[in-house]
Amino acid sequence: MTATPDNTQATAVPLGELAAGGAALTATGSNEAGTSAWYSFTVPDFLSPANIAVTPADGGDGAALWTPGYNYPDGNPAPIGPATSMNESLLAGTNYVQVAGGTQGNPFTLTVTPPAA
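Structure (tokenized):
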């Protein structure tokens, strides 16, 4: 699954469901300066910790910002990051990851790994 750079949270590419002991969710994309790639995933139950990692390829760069998407009053929670890897506790609901900061247009791989069951 490849996201188009410079998409928005409203048009995030859905990755599926992340559950304890389940499979990791992955996506590839590429960014250039000033663009973002947004992805979403659902969490059926509280997970802790889940790992969110961005791996640049071919000398590229980029970082993830994790935006929890569950029932914030203003619908716009503050993102956590930027980082190339982070361990986060996830509440049930929809969560968003924004990959940003790429400057060379090189590919990256986003991996969201759940904890063991």
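The two ends are 26 Å apart (CA to CA). The beta strands are 13-17, 25-30, 36-43, 47-56, 63-68, 80-83, 85-90, 93-100, 107-113.
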